[in-house]
## 1
Amino acid sequence: MNGKKDFSTYSDHILILGWRAQRTKRILELILADKKRHQRKIILCVERDMSHPFPQMLDVEFAKLESFSNQDELARIAMGQASSIIVDGENDEMTLSMALSASSHAAKQAHISAYFHEESKAELLRAHCPNVECASSRHAEILVRTMQSPGASILHEQLFSTLDEATLYCLTLEDSPEMTVGDVFQPLREKHGMTLMAIADDEKGAGFKLNPSMDTQLHAGQVLHYIAHERVRKHEINWVDVLLSKMDV
C-alpha cells in the first residue's frame, strides 16, 4: 500500500510511469478490459507522496519511487525485465525525463509508449530515442475530421477503447504460407471476425500501410492491425485453413 515493495524478481510485466489521477485510472481499466491479454502483472510507479490509489485492482501493484533516474529504484521495479512501459507524466517535461530514463534502462525488446501534449516534445524524443513510440494530442486533426465527416470523433474514441465493443488489436505474422492481403481479408472476417486495417514491417511501425491494396504481399515478421470484438491470438489462426477457405469461395 505504501509503495515500498521490491519487484526486482518480476519479468515480462507492464510498467505505468507517472500519475494523472482519472487518466491513469482509465489507462488501467482499458488494459484490464482486454480479457484475452497476456496476464502480465502491472506496476503503477509514481514519485508522489501517496498510497496505492487502486487497491481494488488485484492485478495492479504500486511502487513509490524517490526518482525515476535512481538506478536502485529502477532495479526495484525491474525496469530491465519489463515487456511494456507506458510513460504519462503530469506534464510534458516530466514525461520527457521519464521516457529518456526508460529508453536507457529498458530491455531492447521492450515496447515503450509516451504521451505528449506538444508535438515538439514528441519529435524531440523520437529523434533521440527511436525505441520509444510517441503519441501526441491531435485536436486539430480531430476537429477537422468531425467537421468534414460528422461522427468521426465517435469512431476515433471507440477504435481505441477496449470498453466499447470492437476495437483495434494487432498480431505478428510468424511462419505462414505465401499470401496477399486479398487472400486473407475476407476469410479473416468470416472465420475470426477480424477486419484487417493496416500492416507494418515491425512492431515499431516501419513501412506502415493503412488500408493496404489487395495485392500486397504478406510475410513473416509483419504486424497486422485489425478491428475485432476481442483479441485473436496467433495460435488461433491456421493460415492454411484461411487460404483454403479463400479457394473454396
## 2
Amino acid sequence: MSYRRLPLKIVILGCGRVGSTLATMLDQAGHTVSIIDFSSDSFQRLSPDFGGETIPGNGVDEEVLIRAGIKEADAFAAVTNGDNRNIMASQIAKEIFKVKKVMCRIYDPIREETYRELGMETICPTKVGAQMFFDALIAQK
C-alpha cells in the first residue's frame, strides 16, 4: 500500500486503545497529530515519546476542535467508543470545517451502512472482526 510522504496535520478524537495507537503511529511517521479526549487520564495510553498535542475536552465542541487545529487539519479520525459522538464529530469536521479526509468508527453495522451510503467514510470493527473470524473458521487446511 502506498502512503503519502508529505507530513499531514491530523486530528484524532478518542485516546482509547485505537486512538492512542493510531496517534503514536502517525506521530512516528512524521505527521503532526492532535488528539482529543474527554478524560485527561486517557493520554497516559500514548507512547512516552509521543510528540503531538493532547487536548482535553468534548470532541463535538467546536472550540475544542479549533484548539486541536481542525481549521488546518488535512484529516480527522473519530475513534471514541460512542457511535453518536463519532458521527456528530465527523459531520462537524466534514461540513463545518471542510476537512478533506474524515474517517468515522461506527460499531453498529446497520448504522455504519446507513452513514456510508450517505457519503461518510466509515470503519465498522464489528464487521471487520466478524469477517476475520469467518475467514479463520472456514479456511481449508
## 3
Amino acid sequence: MRKNKKSRVDLVLFSETFNQLCKTTRLLQTRAYTHHYGTSLLRHSVNVAYVSAFISKLLRLNIDYIQLIRGALLHDYYLYDCHDKNEENKKHHLRRHPGKAVLAAQDEIFLTKKEIDIILKHMFPITFSLPKSKESFVVCFSDKVCSIYELFTNISKKIFLKVSFA
C-alpha cells in the first residue's frame, strides 16, 4: 500500500525551521522543564509542531507552514518550571503562560502577528481568546491532542511499571 505523499510533513522544512529557532532562541533549554508527567517542554513543543503540520497537510489547508511550525514550537516558551512550589505560579499558569511565552520569544526574535496569535490563543477556551487564523486554530487543537496523549501515555507507563514490578 502506497502512502499519500500529500499528507506527509515536509521534514526538511520542519528541520530547518527547528534548527533556525535553536540557533536564535533558548528553545533547547526547555528540555530541562517537565511539562506533562515526564514529557519535557521541548518534546511537547516538537510534538505539537509536528502534529499541527501533519493535520494541516492531511486536511490540505492553505497555510503558512513556517509560521505554523514556529508558533507551535514557541507556544509554551515561558522558560520556567510551571510545577514550581510557588502556589501563585501554579494558580495562574494556565491563563498567563501564553503571554509570557510571547514576551520571552520577542526578547530574542521577531514574531509575526500570526505567530503571536498562535502563541496567545493556544489555550482557548481557557483563555477565552478565539484563534483568528487557520494556523492558530490548528495549533490550539494539536496542543490539546498532544497533551492528552502525553498525559495518558505517561500515566499508563507508571501504572504498567507498578503492576509489573509490584
## 4
Amino acid sequence: MTVTANMVKALRERTGAGMMDCKTALTETNGDMEQAVDWLRKKGLSKAAKKADRVAAEGLIGLTTKDQVGAIVEVNSETDFVARNPQFQEMVRAITSLAPQVEGDLEKLLGLTFPGKSVSVADHVKEMVATIGENMSVRRTGHAAVTEGVVSEYVHNKAADGLGKIGVLVAVESKGDKAQLAAFGRQLAMHIAAASPAAVTAEELGPALIERERAVYTEQAKASGKAPDIVAKMVEGRLRKEFYQQVVLLQQTFLGAGGDGKLTVEQVLKTAEKSAGAPIKITKFVRYALGEGIEKKDGDFADEVAKLRK
C-alpha cells in the first residue's frame, strides 16, 4: 500500500510523532492507522535515548499562582508543532502544578511522582519522548512568594491557560488592598515581559555585569582624551543614566497603562501605593523566555517534507 503525505499528516496530528517516524510506522503496518499508532507507542524508551542529542529549544512556559505563592517551569521540545500537542500541554500543566512545593529546586521537581502515575516526573518525560517521538526536557523552574500581598503572573504568546512562550512572576509585598495590588502586579508583570529587566534595584545587579559595562564605557571615554578623573566621572554618569535605566526594573520607563512613556516604574509604584492604601515593595520577579540561552540548530522543513516523497 502506498503511504501518502495526507496519511502521514493525520498520524502526526494524532500522535505528535516525527514525520519520518510516522511514515515508517504506516509502511510497517501497511497503512493501518490504529496499528501505526501502536507501532509508535511500542518503540519504548530505547527510542527516547536516540533522541537525547537533539536540540530541544521549543516547548512551553507554565505558570501557576495560589495563596501568595507562584511557580514557573520551562519544558522544552524540539518543535513548536509538539508544543501545540494537547498531550504535551497537559504534561506541562501537570508538572507546573507540582512546582510550588519545590521552591525552585529542579532536581526535587524531577524526582516527584507525576500526577496520576506511579513514576517520577523525569521518567514520565522519558515515556513521552518515546510516545511523541521528540526529545523533551524540563529545563528549569522558579518560585516567588510573599507573606502579605500578591504574586502576579503574565503569559505572553499564550498557547493555553497558564501556558505560553514568555512567562513572568512578580512578588508584590504589601498590606494594601488586594484588588489594587493584583491590578498593579499584572501591569508590572506585563512590563517585565516586554522590558526584560535584570534586577529590581541597582544593588541587586551582579558585580560582573556592572564591571563589563564599566569597561566598555571606560574605553569609549578614554577616546575623548580627558583626564583620568574626568573619565571616571563620565563612566559613572553613564552607568547611572544609561545602563541602570535599561536594566534596573525600578529605573526603567514604565511600559504599561498610566505611564504615558514618561514615568519610571518607581514613580508608577508610588501612585499604586496611594490606590492600595499602603506601601508596596517589589521583592522578586522571575522572567522566563522560551529557549533563551539554548543554541538552536537551523532546520529545513522543506527538506524534511521532500524526504517523504522518496
